[in-house]
């Protein structure tokens, strides 16, 4: 994957945050959205674009650009091998999301 800029993970300096967002049911959101098809997930389409040349992914056009089925499978495997998920719980996460994103962007 291309070298990512940004602040290091607090306990693993070789990791960088790639996505910050809210989810009331993180497990189901990951399973039903980010680990399925690129047509449903902006995160998947963005990651596919970042590694398109490196991985040789092929795309087709529907109402948006999506990967062909074999490459959807390859991308899911790539996600499992290269990305990690972490989270924190908060009673009112929407109160913090903007501040967390700004803090991470400011440290770039």
Automatic annotation (TrEMBL):
Highest taxon above the source species: Bacteria
InterPro entries referenced in this protein's UniProt entry, alphabetically: GIY_YIG_cat
Domain GIY-YIG catalytic: 12-104
Name recorded for this polypeptide: GIY-YIG nuclease family protein
Species annotation: Pseudonocardia benzenivorans
